Amino acid sequence: MRGIRIPSAEGRHARSALWGFRGRRVILAGTGLLVVAVAGAVGVGELLSAPARARVGAAPADWGAVDVALTTTDGRRVFGWFVATESPRGTVLLLHGVRADRRQIAGRVPFLRARGYSTMLIDLPSHGESDGDRITSGAHEAAAVEAAIRDLHRRAPGLPVGVIGSSMGAAAVVLAHLPDALDAVVLESMYPTIEEATDDRMRNALGPLGPWPSPLLLAQLPLRAGVSPHDLHPIEAIRSLSSPILIMNGSEDRHTTPQEASRIFAAVNSPKQLWIVPGAGHVDLHAYATTEYEARVGRFFAAYLDQAARHGGTK
Question: CA 196, 197, 198, 201 torsion: positive or negative?
Fold first, then answer.
């Protein structure tokens, strides 16, 4: 029939060989990209979980701080400072963010002292001068929070106890087993779930396609630190806290978005407060908006720590 060409057997074999060659190239290229992606994710996972130890040095001389050495229930040594005030109204534990140490949050000590609160600052496990071989985004760090709270109750029995946690430090508070041990809690820039935290950070680094490596990073948690992603859901754990809670977040925070902070706030039991700091990103909110920060936190602690003091503090 005219107009119809029937390829020869040789032509069909040639085309088949050509497509086979191209197919192998595509498979090899895809395999190479997969290997590169996995290797990159492994490298990033190692970087993110590696300890962030540093020599902290002495506290400012005018604080009259004493050194603190605690031991967690899982055997880690935790170091920090305790800064006492005369006739304290209560004590406040200060907790830093990821890959930092107690110095990051030390700027809050003077205004708390001026309001009559003693303070404790610690290096969370795998940070600063404390023990630990892996950063776990709040999971193992929670044991240090528990040890610090026990020590505060020992040092000042009957006094109310508050806490300020920033980022990972906030997550460590919520993931700790402290349902009735705190009288007031301030949580700054805390992620809701580790999956969202990872996606947000990958998106910031790589753009719209950023979240696709997230499963490769999350899969390393059990292998590197013995922690499951399900262990890192502060938005669920926060429901067990019975203390008043103040949630803070920057309006321009791309690591923990204001929308995520609002979801956390919705999960919190009352009494609760929410402050979205205008213009702030994932930064030290005290340093960014010092005057308003000190006024809000001061009123919050005055309301709830003083109220607890009138009833004999936490048990």
Answer: positive
Q: Read out DSSP for 91-102?
A: EEEEE--TT--G
| CA separation for the pair 106, 128 (Å, rounded) | 13
pLDDT at 75 over 60: yes
The CA angle 30-32-37, to the nearest 5 degrees, is: 95
Residue 276 CA to residue 118 CA, distance in Å, equals 27
Task: Enumerate residues 6+ apart whose C-beta is below 8 A from 43.
Answer: none
Residue-wise DSSP of 124-186: PTTEETS--S---TTTTHHHHHHHHHHHHHHHSTTS-EEEEEETHHHHHHHHSS-TTS-SEEE
Contact in structure between 70 and 151 (CB atoms under 8 Å) = yes
What number is the average pLDDT over the span 169-194? 96
Question: What digits encode the pLDDT tens for the residues 262-307?
Answer: 999 999 999 999 999 999 999 999 999 999 999 999 999 999 998 8
What domains, with CATH codes, occur in the chain?
50-193+232-310 (3.40.50.1820)
| Helix 141-155, helix 168-175: angle, nearest 10 | 70
Q: Could you tell me how far CA 6 lies from the centroid of its own chain?
A: 67
**Distance (Å, whole) CA 232 – CA 210:** 21
